[in-house]
Structures are given as C-alpha cells and as structure tokens.
C-alpha cells in the first residue's frame, strides 16, 4: 500500500512535469509570487531590524509583526496559487494559459482569499506561541496541530477558485477532498518534495562546480558561486511549487468531477483493486504509474 502510494505520487509528479514542459508559462505565477513575498518580508523585517527594540522586547509587538508577515505572505502566496490553479484547469481543459486572465481570476476571489489568509495568520501565530514555550509536550502538540492544519487546508485555494464557498465551507470541502484523495495527495506531496530536493541539490552541485572550476580568484568567484548556485536552487523550488499546483488541481478536478483531466487520464484513479468502486464510493483513489 505505502509503496503503491509512492509510485502513484511519482506518477502524478511526472505527469505534472509534462504539463509544465508543454506550458512553461505556468511557472510565471510562482515566480511573481515568490519575488513579491520576498520583497515584502525584506521590507518588513528590514525595518524591524533597523528599529531593533521590537526583537529585544518581544511580546505583543513582535507577534503583531509576525501576524502581519503571515497575513501578507499567505495572501500573496494564495493569490498567485489561485491564478496558477485556475490556469492549470484551463490547460487541462485544452486551452492556453494566460497570466493576465489568471491574475483577474485570482482578484475576483480576493475577499475569500483574504479571509483565508487572516485565519491562517492567526493559526500561524498561535502555533508560534505554543512552540515558543519551554515545554517539549507543547512543541510536540504544536507540530501535530501544524500537520493536521496543513492536511485540512491542502485544497483550500482550489475550493475558493472553483466553488467560491463560505468561510466554513472552504475548510469543510478542503478537508473532505483531502479525505477522498488522501493516498494520492500524500503520494504527490512526497514525490514532488523529493523532486524539489533533488533539483535544489543539483543547484548546490552546480554551485560547487562553479566554485572549484572557475579560475577567478577572491570575492568574484564567491559572488559567481552564490549567484549561479543560488539561482539553480531557487529554480528548483519554483518548479516544485508549480508541480504542486498542477497536481493539486488535477486531483481536485477528479475528486469533484469524477473524471480524470487531460495528461492524467491514464492514471486509473477509479481502479480499486478490480472492485469497480469509484473514488467517492471508496473514500480513496487508486492509481497506476
């Protein structure tokens, strides 16, 4: 069972890679989102570093800054994730991706995305508060809660984009979708994380090659190593994020429409050991690589 889920996860990752290969424009959304998020965090914590006292005093001011960081980061990431999943669906339906249309679609769901971001920011601060306690049990509980929260909200963005639900509904449907696709979701997450790690590792290898092979001496070689190797690592992470968005969209489409989308039609989602049950009947999805 475990190895079957892993194999299916790599199957999802490989087919998601084919989608990205055919439509590299999808990579634009994680790139813009990543740059925007980094720029915001650099501005926020750069200002706080200059102020200095907030880190020394801690307390409400520090957690207020953390809430702001979580809120904006979650909204930015969710916004461009919404654009990605909407355009991924367009691709899986046989269309062409459009950055402008994806951004318009995400903007049309700005209020539920903001509501989700506020709740996620509150939960993030609560988890941080628990983890800051000098208590092993509290930290363990925080870790368990963080995992459960991640599972329950795994499909929140697709739910918001494709269903436009109430605040309560977005969590209920996300949790229900994950329950119905838990095997493939976990497998896909694991496989894509491995792919991301391998790509990042390749970036480190490139950095090492640059450092030892380029004859330039002194600081110039170090700068080239950081720029080239760092760019390779960032590229690997961005590819991983894009693959995650594609796989998540494909799983959500099947879970809600009971029909495999293009690029994933040979996954055999509904095959449950030859018993003929569907994902909704069985509560999980089968699949072949």
Mind telling me the C-alpha Rg? 21 Å
In total, the number of strands is 0
Shape: globular
Question: How much β-strand is present in the residues?
Answer: under 5%
Secondary-structure element order, as H and E? Answer: HHHHHHHHHHHH
Q: For the terminal residues, how far apart are their CA atoms? A: 14 Å
On the 0 to 100 scale, the average pLDDT is 81
Portion of residues within helices: over 70%
Largest sheet: none
| Poorly predicted runs of 5 or more residues | 271-289
What structural class results from the helix and strand content? Answer: mainly alpha
The helix tally amounts to: 12
**Number of structurally distinct domains:** 1
Transmembrane segments: 26-55, 61-85, 111-130, 136-162, 186-214, 220-239
InterPro entries: DUF6159
Pfam family, one: DUF6159
Organism: Halorutilus salinus
């Amino acid at each position: 069972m475990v190895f079957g889920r892993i194999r299916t996860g790599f199957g999802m990752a490989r087919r998601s890679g084919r989608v990205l290969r055919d439509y590299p424009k999808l990579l634009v959304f994680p790139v813009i989102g990543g740059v925007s998020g980094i720029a915001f965090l650099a501005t926020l914590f750069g200002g706080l570093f200059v102020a200095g006292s907030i880190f020394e005093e801690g307390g409400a001011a520090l957690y207020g800054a953390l809430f702001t960081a979580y809120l904006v980061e979650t909204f930015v990431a969710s916004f461009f994730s919404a654009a990605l999943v909407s355009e991924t669906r367009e691709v899986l339906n046989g269309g062409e991706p459009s950055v402008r249309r994806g951004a318009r679609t995400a903007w049309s769901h700005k209020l539920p995305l903001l509501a989700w971001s506020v709740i996620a920011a509150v939960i993030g601060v609560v988890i941080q508060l628990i983890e800051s306690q000098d208590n092993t049990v509290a930290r363990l509980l925080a870790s368990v809660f963080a995992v459960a929260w991640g599972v329950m909200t795994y499909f929140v963005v697709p739910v918001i984009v494709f269903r436009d639900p109430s605040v309560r509904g977005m969590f209920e449907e996300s949790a229900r979708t994950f329950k119905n696709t838990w095997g493939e979701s976990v497998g896909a997450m694991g496989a894509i994380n491995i792919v991301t790690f391998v790509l990042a590792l390749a970036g480190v290898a490139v950095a090492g090659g640059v450092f030892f092979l380029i004859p330039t001496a002194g600081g110039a070689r170090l700068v080239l190593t950081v720029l080239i190797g760092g760019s390779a690592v960032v590229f690997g992470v961005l590819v991983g994020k894009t693959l995650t968005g594609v796989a998540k969209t494909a799983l959500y489409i099947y879970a809600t429409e009971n029909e495999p989308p293009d690029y994933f039609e040979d996954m055999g989602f509904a095959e449950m050991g030859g018993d003929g049950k569907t994902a909704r009947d069985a509560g999980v999805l089968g699949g072949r690589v």
